[in-house]
Design brief:
This protein has 177 residues and is of the alpha/beta class. It has one domain: 3-Layer(aba) Sandwich (Rossmann fold). It is built from 4 helices and 8 strands; from the N terminus they run E-H-E-H-E-E-H-E-E-E-E-H. The strands form 2 sheets. It has a 6-stranded parallel β-sheet with strand order 2-5-1-6-7-8, covered by helices on one side. The chain has a two-stranded antiparallel sheet with strand order 3-4. Helix 1 crosses helix 4. The model has no long low-confidence stretch (mean pLDDT 91).
Amino acid sequence: MLSTKLPVIGFSAYSGTGKTTLIKQVIPLLKSRGLKIAVIKHAHHHFDLDQPGKDSYELRKAGAAHTIICTTTRMAAISEFANPDEEPSLQQIVDTLDTGKFDILLVEGYKHLAFDKIELHRTAMKKPYLYPEDPNIIALACDASSPDALAIPMLDLNSPQQIAEFIFDRVYLKYSG
């Protein structure tokens, strides 16, 4: 399990299920309840926030191992890894958060790690359920009827409101109350 002062809930599913789409809908619902939300998203591909010709890009390309870009409205930190084949662990990423600034952490991806998750399942994708093999899945958000003998709560994948209520009641309040 992750070690953090924040309540954590993950969204676990196969690629193309709609994790980011759902999280984008859940965030404003949790925010409307007064929560400050941090999100960690796992990417399976390389990305670059910088643009060639920008100062931050040039500083990083010159050899800076860590670059922070800051304005009056936001800040971004970019770290270069010495060995690009050794991705930092989720715990290492969580440890970089200033947990005092947030009320809850939402995690997209990292489906094989041990922390509480909601499985998202779309019947049309014809993929197997993850929950039978993952004891850390605490709810199933599905677009079809409940599988037989489901021992965890069933949520409507197409109801961000229901999923946000579950997260608030069963994750945030349980952890912080």
